Amino acid sequence: MSEQQILRGVLDRWKSAVDAHEPHRVASYFTDDAIFQGLHPYSVGPASVAAYYDSQPLGMTAAYEIRETRRLADDLVLGYLSVDFAFTDRPTLTVSLSVIVRRVGDGWSISHYQVSRL
Could you tell me which Gene3D superfamilies the record lists for this protein (predicted)? Predict the structure, then answer.
């Protein structure tokens, strides 16, 4: 499986949960020890990911484009993306996102997530 396929497998599920405003489903795609850096101070673990996405406004959606990928090890893939977060009541916010996904059992989960506004 290519790096793009691995990332899309995880990120398509993440996007679906973000678009549906299902914070606990979003969090289920992260590892138990995931480092998460949204636009608030960083946190660790799925509970904090769920809390972050629960605080996002209803109607927020995400559209992503993978810019770069790197296979860091057999069980680690780095992705660098551009993400447009669209809202119902304000302009779209475009951010850069770096993720590291890790193989966990038969699947892949996000172990590092860092947003930046450039």
Answer: 3.10.450.50
